[in-house]
Amino acid sequence: MTHWWLSLSPVAQAGVAAVGTWLLTALGALPVLFLSRVPRRLMDGMMGGAAGVMVAAACWSLLVPAMSLGGVWRAVAGLLAGAALIYLFDQLLPHLHPEFPDEARPEGPRVPWRRSMLLLAAITLHNFPEGLAVGVAFGSDLPGPALALAVGIGIQNLPEGLAVALPLRRDGMSRWKALWYGQLSAIVEPVAAVIGAAVVTRMAHLLPYGMGLAAGAMLYVVVEELIPETERNGNIDVATIGFIAGFGVMMVLDNLLR
Question: Which end of the chain, N or C, is surrounded by fewer C-beta atoms within 10 Å?
């Protein structure tokens, strides 16, 4: 198995790893087949943990290597570009936040789309940076940090799949259809991973910018979306504890897999 993995190109490794993050999302959404409700405090804690993993991944697996490879200014330029890109998409693309979609209001330009289409647009907007981060990390030819990043994103995808699926189930959607949308929340990640790895392996000088861009996009999603959603019901302490726990888990993963 190890020989097979090492024989793959960085682009292929990125694609396989991102398929794994997608499958973990589907696994996380599976309880919707048996449950229609989970305590909101538990979900807020889990989503806080997902946010902590994303922030730590952006720092340890993307920004620190970006500064080592290209210096702080290239990393900062990529960081600002990634945040600006997601902000631009956020303004131009009709969508609603995929976490807890029963509570979300449509954002962006007003269009006569069904909520399912708005959810699909948001899912693509939200998860593309995560897949891109995996691809850029594998394209950096640093397999340890790249694998740690993929594992961390896979872990934080577990509650995300359920956070999408459960509200849709409560809203009257069938079990299987809710599961479909839950797993769909990460299906764009393998595509983004392959694109990210292909670009930085062919244009190595862009690697520090690409790592900073992926980190900026992920941080924007966390601050603009995940953290406010977990605190909407007042479970601030639970969400904060989850965040710290998720951050610590990602620190350990990054250290173990280097």
Answer: N
